[in-house]
Design a protein that fits this description.
This protein has three domains: 1-44, no CATH class; 47-93, no CATH class; 97-222, 60s Ribosomal Protein L30, Chain: A (2-Layer Sandwich), CATH 3.30.1330. Helix content is 56%, strand content 10%. The chain has nine helices and four strands. It has helices at 3-18, 23-30, 34-41, 48-55, 65-92, 97-111, 126-139, 159-170, 207-222; strands at 119-123, 147-154, 181-183, 199-204. The chain has a four-stranded mixed sheet. Helix 6 (97-111) packs across helix 7 (126-139) and helix 6 (97-111) packs across helix 9 (207-222). The protein is elongated. The protein starts with a helix and ends with a helix. The mean pLDDT is 88.
């Protein structure tokens, strides 16, 4: 079977799974191996209603023990995740001004530009971008007119909506956004859009600020 034929089967398998069909039924309809079907649809999550319909015992009208156990495990995992999240937040507690200063230095070291030209930070996570924008304003004293925003965006996403999203989050006016870098989306890659608003990049044209940040990073490692 050629690549085009296999891709067609994958797309059909995913379409059937989203309708709530079982792996076994999809295998029967498409006449392919069960392992292939499992691989193609493994990231598709069925709704509770679909799961109940899929695993309902037609004779007794009750859910099969296996799915009940599986659903209980999912519930336990969700409860554990929530508990650990609460504990993690409690462990961190309130951040001091110095805590935020040092965290910003570490985040810039991880995701910021290191070349001796300008200050720039890129990320797709709105929480990370918002933290760093506050950091630039509070600790770097960057004037609002010096911020420049830009996007790295796949061509299947809405550029206008993405710009509006990041502009509202960062408080950078759209007039201070530069040209978006658009890349072609690969339709053959069957995965959910990882970055629905693209990757945001904030740039500040200030060589001396860049050198100061590099000094802060050096200070972290020296200690």
């Amino acid at each position: 079977m050629g690549y085009a034929g296999k891709l067609k089967l994958r797309l059909k398998a995913r379409e059937l799974r989203k309708k709530g069909l079982s792996i076994k039924e999809i295998q029967r309809r498409l006449d392919v191996s069960r392992s292939s079907v499992s691989l193609w649809v493994r990231d598709i999550k069925l709704s509770k209603k679909q799961l109940e319909k899929l695993y309902l015992n037609k004779r007794t009208g009750a859910l099969k023990g296996s799915i009940v156990a599986a659903m209980n495990k999912v519930k336990e995992r969700e409860e554990l995740t929530q508990r650990l999240t609460r504990e993690g937040r409690k462990d961190v507690g309130r951040l001091s001004k110095r805590d935020k200063f040092v965290i910003g230095i570490a985040m810039y070291f991880a995701e910021g530009d290191k070349t001796d030209k300008h200050v720039a930070f890129s990320n797709s996570d709105p929480r990370s971008v918002k933290f760093m924008m506050n950091w630039f304003r509070e600790f770097c004293k960057v004037p609002e007119v010096k911020f420049r925003g830009s996007l790295y965006l796949h061509d299947n996403l809405n550029e206008k909506k993405a710009k509006q999203f990041w502009s509202e989050l960062t408080k950078i006016p759209l007039s201070q956004f530069t040209k978006t870098y658009v890349v072609k989306n690969d339709p053959h890659r069957l995965r959910k859009t990882k970055h629905p608003h693209g990757v945001f990049r904030v740039r500040i044209s200030d060589v001396n600020l860049h050198r100061k940040i590099m000094g802060w990073i050096s200070g972290i490692f020296k200690n």
